[in-house]
Design a protein that fits this description.
ATP Synthase, domain 1, about 75% strand
């Protein structure tokens, strides 16, 4: 699945991933391939991604929103 993490200043990440873990307003949650459509508010914390090579990367955020649709994930963060 494709992930874009975008801030007002730049694109932090754009690429293919196998797992995304996000700090949701009501708790942490994960998104895997073929996830149902979703729109959620994010609280400050870390986005954890695992790419196809099974490498894990963390991105700190100060909140934002995430949209999941058609196996594409868009994170708009502060």
């Amino acid at each position: 699945m494709h992930l874009d993490i975008i801030t007002p200043d730049s694109t932090l990440f754009s690429g293919e991933v196998t797992l995304v873990q996000l700090p949701g307003k009501d708790g942490s949650f994960e998104i895997l391939s073929q996830h149902a459509p979703l729109l959620s508010v994010l609280k400050p914390g870390q986005i954890r991604i695992v790419d196809k090579a099974k490498l894990e990367t963390l991105f700190p955020i100060n909140g934002g929103v995430v949209e999941v649709k058609h196996n594409k994930i868009l994170v708009l963060s502060e």
